[in-house]
Every structure is written in C-alpha cells, then in structure tokens.
Amino acid sequence: MARNLFYSKSTGMYNDWHRNIQDDTFKQLDIDVVEYSECKRCKKKHIHFIAETAYFKGNLYKNTEITRMVAQDMGVTAYLIFYQPISNNAVKTTDAQIKELGYDPSLMFNVAKIDHLKSNYGYKFKEFSAYEWVMFLKDLRTCYKCSSLECTKWQK
Ligand SMILES: [Zn+2]
Fold first, then answer.
1. Farthest CA pair distance, the chain
2. Domain residue spans in the chain?
3. Ligand 1 center to residue 138 CA distance, Å?
4. From the CA of 43, how far away is ligand 1's center (Å)?
C-alpha cells in the first residue's frame, strides 16, 4: 500500500514488493540482528540473541512487540539497541584504525534487554562504548558452552 513511504527507506526488493500488497492485514517485520557464533570444534551454530536496532534521535523508544514475541517463542535473549556516532566524530575512522583496534570506535550504544518485557515500556538502558560492546559480544562467545553431543562429551 506504499504506506509510510516518507519514513521508511527501501530495505530490499522483496520488502518493497511486500509493502505494495494492497491489503493492510499483510504485515511483516525485519529482524535487524541475529547475533550468533559457530563452535570451533563441531561447527554447530548458536544464537546469542536477536535485536532491534535504531539510530538514536533523542528518544529511547521503539515498538518492539514482534521482536519480543519472536524471542519469547524461540527462547532466546533479545535487545533493543540504539546507536549513535560519538560526539567528536567529525573525522571518519579510517580502515587502518579499524584494523589496528579490531573494531570501529565511532559509534556508541544504548542497549536494553527486552525479551522478558510484556510491553514497550520499562526498557532499562545501559550505555556502551564501541569497545565495551565488543567486549560484551566477546564475552558471550567466551562464556558459551557448546551443547552438541560431541562437545558435551568432550567437556566431561
Ligand atoms: Zn561444539
């Protein structure tokens, strides 16, 4: 129905096609992030969390109903992640700097866990620098114990 065309930029040909279906009961949402890793030993993939992301424009609010439902049905953690450039960001981070650091330091994040919530209210945000968020993502991988048959045998 070409609704919200002023507000939503194209997110791909299929999504554009779906948006043009002339029936308002046809609804669809992109899950922005599925954060996962692969076990080094057995190659089994594990989902750490799913997330809804948004550019921070002064308001830490976003409807997360469907993302929360998906997380609850899947039994995975879900986050709402607002990102924004760090204040003195006039100079763009170079590829060389990113290579040296191992990540792009130019963004910061406000992150709220949402999978336990029953509504779009009660978000408790925590601020993360790019470094802190990378460390958080790294910790998820460090702490995760692979649950495959092969690897649980190995752990005994
Ligand atoms: Zn494994």
1. 57
2. 1-30, 31-145
3. 17
4. 6
Tokens 């554009």 appear where? 16
Q: Give the span between the Cα atoms of 79 and 123, in whole angstroms.
A: 10
Task: Give me ligand 1 centre to Cα 45, in Å.
Answer: 8
Q: How far is CA 133 from CA 42, 53, 138, 153, in A?
A: 27, 14, 8, 32
What is the pTM for the complete model shown? 0.87
Query: Are residues 110 and 79 in contact, defined by beta-carbon separation less than 8 angstroms?
Result: no
| Alpha carbon distance 154, 89 (integer Å) | 47
pLDDT at 3 over 80: no
User: For position 2, what pLDDT does the model report?
Assistant: 46
Measured in Å, residue 152 CA sits from the centre of ligand 1 at 8
Residue 6 has pLDDT above 80, yes or no: no
